[in-house]
Write a structure and sequence with these properties.
single chain
Protein backbone atom coordinates (compact mmCIF):
# COMPACT_ATOMS: atom_id res chain seq x y z
CA UNK A 1 0.00 0.00 0.00
CA UNK A 2 1.51 3.31 -1.07
CA UNK A 3 2.59 5.63 1.74
CA UNK A 4 0.96 8.62 0.07
CA UNK A 5 0.00 11.29 2.61
CA UNK A 6 -3.55 11.82 3.81
CA UNK A 7 -5.16 14.83 2.14
CA UNK A 8 -6.32 16.44 5.41
CA UNK A 9 -4.00 17.77 8.13
CA UNK A 10 -3.47 15.14 10.83
CA UNK A 11 -3.83 16.47 14.37
CA UNK A 12 -1.85 15.09 17.27
CA UNK A 13 -3.51 12.15 18.99
CA UNK A 14 -2.57 9.53 21.57
CA UNK A 15 -2.15 6.21 19.77
CA UNK A 16 -2.26 2.83 21.50
CA UNK A 17 -1.67 -0.60 19.97
CA UNK A 18 -3.77 -3.51 21.21
CA UNK A 19 -3.18 -6.74 19.30
CA UNK A 20 -4.97 -6.26 15.96
CA UNK A 21 -6.28 -2.75 16.62
CA UNK A 22 -4.82 0.73 17.02
CA UNK A 23 -6.72 3.10 19.28
CA UNK A 24 -6.70 6.89 18.93
CA UNK A 25 -7.64 9.14 21.83
CA UNK A 26 -7.43 12.90 22.19
CA UNK A 27 -3.88 14.15 22.69
CA UNK A 28 -5.22 16.55 25.33
CA UNK A 29 -7.03 13.81 27.26
CA UNK A 30 -5.27 10.51 26.49
CA UNK A 31 -6.65 8.79 29.58
CA UNK A 32 -10.17 7.27 29.41
CA UNK A 33 -12.72 10.01 30.00
CA UNK A 34 -15.34 9.86 32.73
CA UNK A 35 -18.00 10.28 30.08
CA UNK A 36 -17.99 7.27 27.78
CA UNK A 37 -16.96 8.11 24.21
CA UNK A 38 -18.38 6.62 21.00
CA UNK A 39 -16.12 4.54 18.76
CA UNK A 40 -15.44 4.92 15.04
CA UNK A 41 -13.84 1.76 13.63
CA UNK A 42 -11.98 2.03 10.32
CA UNK A 43 -11.61 -1.11 8.17
CA UNK A 44 -9.01 -1.05 5.43
CA UNK A 45 -9.37 -2.68 2.03
CA UNK A 46 -7.72 -5.61 0.37
CA UNK A 47 -6.52 -7.97 -0.85
CA UNK A 48 -2.87 -7.61 0.04
CA UNK A 49 -0.82 -6.49 -2.96
CA UNK A 50 1.02 -9.58 -4.28
CA UNK A 51 4.43 -7.89 -4.16
CA UNK A 52 4.10 -6.67 -0.55
CA UNK A 53 5.09 -9.04 2.26
CA UNK A 54 5.00 -6.63 5.20
CA UNK A 55 1.43 -5.32 4.75
CA UNK A 56 0.43 -2.91 7.52
CA UNK A 57 -2.45 -0.71 6.35
CA UNK A 58 -3.20 0.55 9.87
CA UNK A 59 0.20 2.31 9.78
CA UNK A 60 -0.70 4.16 6.59
CA UNK A 61 -0.86 7.97 6.96
CA UNK A 62 -4.44 7.92 5.70
CA UNK A 63 -5.72 5.71 8.53
CA UNK A 64 -3.57 7.53 11.08
CA UNK A 65 -5.23 10.69 9.82
CA UNK A 66 -8.78 9.41 10.05
CA UNK A 67 -8.25 7.97 13.51
CA UNK A 68 -6.57 11.14 14.80
CA UNK A 69 -9.27 13.45 13.45
CA UNK A 70 -12.17 11.62 15.08
CA UNK A 71 -10.18 11.49 18.33
CA UNK A 72 -9.73 15.24 18.21
CA UNK A 73 -13.47 15.56 17.62
CA UNK A 74 -14.41 13.70 20.80
CA UNK A 75 -14.75 10.08 19.67
CA UNK A 76 -12.32 7.17 19.93
CA UNK A 77 -10.80 6.16 16.61
CA UNK A 78 -9.96 2.51 16.03
CA UNK A 79 -8.21 0.95 13.07
CA UNK A 80 -8.50 -2.83 12.61
CA UNK A 81 -5.86 -4.94 10.91
CA UNK A 82 -7.13 -7.94 8.94
CA UNK A 83 -5.34 -10.34 6.63
CA UNK A 84 -7.20 -10.53 3.35
CA UNK A 85 -4.40 -12.05 1.29
CA UNK A 86 -6.81 -12.79 -1.57
CA UNK A 87 -10.53 -12.17 -2.09
CA UNK A 88 -11.03 -15.85 -1.30
CA UNK A 89 -10.10 -14.94 2.29
CA UNK A 90 -13.00 -12.55 2.82
CA UNK A 91 -14.68 -14.76 5.42
CA UNK A 92 -11.50 -15.00 7.51
CA UNK A 93 -10.94 -11.26 7.22
CA UNK A 94 -14.54 -10.60 8.27
CA UNK A 95 -14.02 -12.73 11.38
CA UNK A 96 -10.87 -10.76 12.21
CA UNK A 97 -12.76 -7.49 11.87
CA UNK A 98 -15.57 -8.75 14.12
CA UNK A 99 -13.01 -9.79 16.74
CA UNK A 100 -11.32 -6.40 16.51
CA UNK A 101 -14.63 -4.60 16.98
CA UNK A 102 -15.42 -6.67 20.05
CA UNK A 103 -11.97 -5.91 21.46
CA UNK A 104 -12.56 -2.19 20.88
CA UNK A 105 -15.88 -2.36 22.73
CA UNK A 106 -14.10 -3.68 25.85
CA UNK A 107 -11.62 -0.79 26.08
CA UNK A 108 -11.75 1.60 29.04
CA UNK A 109 -13.69 4.79 28.39
CA UNK A 110 -15.65 3.60 25.36
CA UNK A 111 -19.39 3.73 24.89
CA UNK A 112 -19.86 0.14 23.78
CA UNK A 113 -23.39 0.95 22.62
CA UNK A 114 -22.31 3.60 20.12
CA UNK A 115 -20.07 2.13 17.44
CA UNK A 116 -19.70 3.32 13.84
CA UNK A 117 -18.05 1.09 11.22
CA UNK A 118 -16.29 2.68 8.25
CA UNK A 119 -15.13 0.45 5.37
CA UNK A 120 -12.81 1.34 2.50
CA UNK A 121 -12.24 -0.21 -0.94
CA UNK A 122 -12.19 -4.04 -0.83
CA UNK A 123 -13.19 -3.83 2.82
CA UNK A 124 -16.68 -3.10 1.52
CA UNK A 125 -17.13 -6.83 1.00
CA UNK A 126 -16.70 -7.30 4.76
CA UNK A 127 -19.91 -5.39 5.47
CA UNK A 128 -22.10 -8.38 4.59
CA UNK A 129 -22.79 -9.68 8.10
CA UNK A 130 -23.19 -6.20 9.59
CA UNK A 131 -25.76 -5.27 6.95
CA UNK A 132 -27.60 -8.56 7.10
CA UNK A 133 -27.99 -8.54 10.88
CA UNK A 134 -26.93 -5.20 12.39
CA UNK A 135 -26.43 -5.31 16.17
CA UNK A 136 -28.29 -2.82 18.36
CA UNK A 137 -25.09 -0.95 19.26
CA UNK A 138 -24.13 -0.26 15.63
CA UNK A 139 -24.94 3.39 14.93
CA UNK A 140 -24.07 3.52 11.23
CA UNK A 141 -21.97 2.13 8.40
CA UNK A 142 -19.85 4.32 6.14
CA UNK A 143 -18.43 3.14 2.82
CA UNK A 144 -15.72 4.95 0.86
CA UNK A 145 -15.01 3.90 -2.76
CA UNK A 146 -16.17 0.42 -1.75
CA UNK A 147 -16.14 -2.90 -3.54
CA UNK A 148 -19.69 -4.19 -3.03
CA UNK A 149 -20.21 -6.88 -5.63
CA UNK A 150 -18.20 -9.85 -6.84
CA UNK A 151 -17.59 -11.71 -10.06
CA UNK A 152 -17.20 -15.51 -10.16
CA UNK A 153 -13.52 -15.52 -11.08
CA UNK A 154 -12.64 -13.65 -7.88
CA UNK A 155 -13.33 -16.80 -5.87
CA UNK A 156 -15.25 -15.01 -3.11
CA UNK A 157 -17.37 -17.06 -0.72
CA UNK A 158 -20.99 -16.90 -1.98
CA UNK A 159 -22.07 -15.75 1.47
CA UNK A 160 -20.17 -12.50 0.91
CA UNK A 161 -22.80 -10.35 -0.78
CA UNK A 162 -23.36 -6.78 0.47
CA UNK A 163 -25.85 -6.08 -2.32
CA UNK A 164 -28.15 -8.83 -1.09
CA UNK A 165 -27.41 -8.09 2.57
CA UNK A 166 -28.50 -4.44 2.37
CA UNK A 167 -32.04 -5.63 1.71
CA UNK A 168 -32.13 -6.74 5.37
CA UNK A 169 -30.47 -3.72 6.95
CA UNK A 170 -33.63 -2.04 8.20
CA UNK A 171 -33.17 1.59 9.21
CA UNK A 172 -29.47 1.53 10.03
CA UNK A 173 -27.98 4.73 8.54
CA UNK A 174 -25.51 4.13 5.70
CA UNK A 175 -23.19 6.64 4.03
CA UNK A 176 -21.71 5.84 0.62
CA UNK A 177 -18.95 7.93 -0.92
CA UNK A 178 -18.86 7.02 -4.60
CA UNK A 179 -16.33 8.10 -7.20
CA UNK A 180 -16.91 8.58 -10.90
CA UNK A 181 -13.47 7.57 -12.18
CA UNK A 182 -13.69 3.99 -10.97
CA UNK A 183 -13.17 0.52 -12.42
CA UNK A 184 -16.34 -0.55 -14.31
CA UNK A 185 -16.87 -3.68 -12.20
CA UNK A 186 -16.69 -1.58 -9.01
CA UNK A 187 -19.15 0.95 -10.41
CA UNK A 188 -21.56 -1.85 -11.27
CA UNK A 189 -21.44 -3.11 -7.69
CA UNK A 190 -22.04 0.35 -6.24
CA UNK A 191 -24.97 0.92 -8.60
CA UNK A 192 -26.47 -2.46 -7.69
CA UNK A 193 -26.08 -1.64 -4.00
CA UNK A 194 -27.82 1.71 -4.40
CA UNK A 195 -30.69 0.05 -6.27
CA UNK A 196 -31.07 -2.68 -3.64
CA UNK A 197 -30.98 -0.11 -0.83
CA UNK A 198 -33.67 1.96 -2.53
CA UNK A 199 -35.88 -1.09 -3.01
CA UNK A 200 -35.47 -1.94 0.68
CA UNK A 201 -36.14 1.69 1.68
CA UNK A 202 -32.84 1.73 3.53
CA UNK A 203 -31.54 4.95 5.05
CA UNK A 204 -28.76 5.61 2.51
CA UNK A 205 -26.98 8.94 2.08
CA UNK A 206 -24.58 9.44 -0.82
CA UNK A 207 -21.56 11.68 -1.31
CA UNK A 208 -20.98 11.78 -5.05
CA UNK A 209 -17.52 12.69 -6.32
CA UNK A 210 -17.90 12.52 -10.12
CA UNK A 211 -14.23 13.26 -10.84
CA UNK A 212 -12.98 11.29 -7.86
CA UNK A 213 -10.71 8.27 -8.15
CA UNK A 214 -10.32 5.11 -6.09
CA UNK A 215 -8.14 6.25 -3.19
CA UNK A 216 -8.88 9.94 -3.72
CA UNK A 217 -8.22 10.63 -0.02
CA UNK A 218 -4.59 9.68 -0.70
CA UNK A 219 -3.99 10.56 -4.33
CA UNK A 220 -6.15 13.60 -5.14
CA UNK A 221 -5.53 16.54 -2.84
CA UNK A 222 -8.21 18.83 -4.25
CA UNK A 223 -10.93 21.01 -2.69
CA UNK A 224 -13.60 18.53 -3.80
CA UNK A 225 -11.74 15.59 -2.26
CA UNK A 226 -11.10 17.39 1.01
CA UNK A 227 -14.74 18.45 1.18
CA UNK A 228 -15.90 14.85 0.59
CA UNK A 229 -13.72 13.53 3.42
CA UNK A 230 -14.73 16.33 5.78
CA UNK A 231 -18.42 15.81 5.01
CA UNK A 232 -18.12 12.06 5.61
CA UNK A 233 -16.37 12.55 8.95
CA UNK A 234 -19.03 15.03 10.04
CA UNK A 235 -21.82 12.65 8.98
CA UNK A 236 -20.35 9.72 10.91
CA UNK A 237 -19.74 11.70 14.09
CA UNK A 238 -23.14 13.38 13.98
CA UNK A 239 -24.92 10.09 13.38
CA UNK A 240 -22.98 8.31 16.10
CA UNK A 241 -23.65 10.99 18.73
CA UNK A 242 -27.31 11.47 17.78
CA UNK A 243 -29.59 11.97 20.82
CA UNK A 244 -26.68 12.49 23.21
CA UNK A 245 -27.15 15.40 25.63
Amino acid sequence: MSQHPFILPTPKAHRERHDTIDVYRSAESPEPARVKQPIVVFVHGGPRPPDVDDWRPRDHPMFVGYGSIVAERGAIGVTVQHHMDTLAHCRTAAEEVAAGVELARTLPGVDRDRVALWFFSGGGLLTTDWLRNPPSWLTCIALTYPVLDTVPEWGVDPHVDPVDAVRSVGQLPILLTKVGRERPEFIAGVDAFITAAAEAEAELDIIDLPKGTHGFDMFDDSPASRDAVTTAIEWVLTTTTRDLP
